[in-house]
DNA sequence: TTTAATCGTATAATTTCTAGATGGACATAC
DNA sequence: GTATGTCCATCTAGAAATTATACGATTAAA
């Protein structure tokens, strides 16, 4: 049996269970019961199924501690990073501040997003008024939205700008909600979005000037062994890279070695 | 009927449906079927239930476009930010780079995390070797882990350091996986973690020097009307705040006005 | 006109899950 | 040492959720 053979609901439960075993190193029926509101019997069944799936490195029951303990060589069924597993490790109260730093979340207008989404779907151009920090609000322009992207901080809109004759990244929040949002079909095919369809392979190395020992720490911290750390993204998103990775700050511990481009 | 009365599985489906209606402004049975692998009949039932829950601002079916369209005044059943809803708006291929910029994910050692978690649970002190960028690897020290936290970038460990006689934030990745991890009970009660139990209320305002128009954009972008934006966190996490919000960079558009502290 | 894609409904069969009872192993308190 | 509580496990009957299948309606496009 495979994880994918299961129904969505049970698969979710087993993945949760798997994460508990991976990051806590232990798990109980109670964890499943509290998290999913299922009965003890079902939780017991889930454990049976999990054990049958994890045949290579099954967890063992420790009657003294009354929990299942992950095997030393535990192999996660579904790989996960620590960041994604954070909520498994923390337990926040309702009325106290959370244990994670709040993010600078940009608010977005529901209706604007929906209109953009529908323009993407139907391949229409939209008339919008856009405000940039530098030049202020424009008088309205036609754009052809193609997709949503993210720089990890906020959501961007990738669109062809007829005004500038090129593809650009827009922040949906800066689109005036009172724009006309007039629609029109795109008469002649849009040019290819070359930057989007170009793979950018960025090679990073510990910052010049770090001691050997410090460089070693940086390598372990970012999980690479050799000289370089390879990160892959799209050329269209590369602009955001340095800020997102903090390469432009004083305390940066990584720097770019080189960047390769190849069409996708 | 309330959303909370439903079983976990169906609640998940309705929340997904709700997000589609909120951010796409439209939804189909097919969305549910593709995302959860349920039958058309079940998807139809889910729509019935959703409509009964969203009695105040129900979506309507548009036979021309063959989809449900969210009401203009659509009220989400479960509020969500745009960032969380990003995956609803994007559709990534398997073998092309994703449409989101990769994050600088720190790798973490499973076993180390599990040991820390278990020490937190059982209230034990642990002997670890810690490497800091400045002072290099120490010879080992006793710490009393209390909880995991996050600065939004990577996961931290909050622990009482016996060596320094105070609570500190540690990066689990910098704990040597070959530490002894010797356990010992905590003999006398730990002091209160004052910084953790202090609420930090940070008041931000558009950066001095911005034009009125620019300030207006910033206000809309971060979703506040009046003079200040109020952000709440814990004093123990405040150290990470400026970096996370980019207040320390050249292009910052927000600055701190003041900070209030109050015990939790 | 036909085909395809939506929507909807209904029924019976199947799977999943619950409720409630029972028993065993162990730790702790008395 | 015995009682108690808390985990684990399992069993069965029944409730609930879900599927499979079939059928009908509307609309757009080939």
Automatic annotation (TrEMBL), chains A, B:
Residues 202-254 form the DNA-binding transcriptional repressor CapW C-terminal dimerisation domain. Residues 112-175 form the WYL domain. InterPro entries: CapW_CTD (IPR059020), WHD_CapW (IPR059019), WYL_dom (IPR026881). Keywords: Plasmid. Residues 10-82 form the DNA-binding transcriptional repressor CapW winged helix-turn-helix domain. The keyword Nucleotidyltransferase does not apply. It comes from the Bacteria. This is WYL domain-containing protein.
């Amino acid at each position: 049996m495979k994880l994918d053979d299961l129904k969505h609901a049970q698969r979710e439960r087993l993945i949760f269970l798997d994460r508990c075993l991976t990051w806590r190193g232990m798990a109980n029926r109670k964890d499943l019961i509290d998290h999913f509101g299922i009965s003890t019997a079902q939780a017991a069944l889930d454990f049976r199924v999990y054990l049958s799936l994890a045949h290579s490195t099954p967890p063992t029951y420790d009657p003294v501690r009354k929990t299942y303990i992950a095997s030393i060589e535990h192999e996660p069924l579904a790989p996960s990073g620590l960041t994604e597993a954070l909520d498994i490790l923390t337990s926040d109260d309702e009325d106290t501040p959370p244990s994670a730093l709040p993010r600078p979340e940009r608010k977005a207008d529901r209706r604007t997003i929906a209109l953009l989404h529908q323009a993407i779907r139907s391949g229409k151009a939209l008339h919008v008024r856009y405000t940039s920090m530098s030049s202020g609000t424009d008088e309205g322009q036609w754009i052809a939205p193609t997709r949503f992207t993210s720089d990890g901080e906020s959501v961007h809109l990738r669109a062809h700008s007829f005004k500038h004759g090129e593809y650009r990244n827009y922040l949906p929040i800066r689109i005036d909600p009172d724009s006309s949002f007039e629609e029109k079909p795109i008469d002649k095919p849009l040019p290819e979005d070359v930057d989007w369809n170009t793979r950018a392979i960025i090679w990073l190395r510990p910052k010049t000037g770090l001691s050997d020992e410090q460089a070693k720490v940086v390598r372990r911290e970012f999980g690479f062994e050799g000289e370089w750390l390879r990160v892959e993204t799209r050329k269209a998103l590369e602009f955001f890279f340095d800020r997102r990775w903090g390469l432009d700050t004083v305390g940066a511990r990584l720097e770019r070695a080189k960047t390769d481009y190849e069409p996708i």
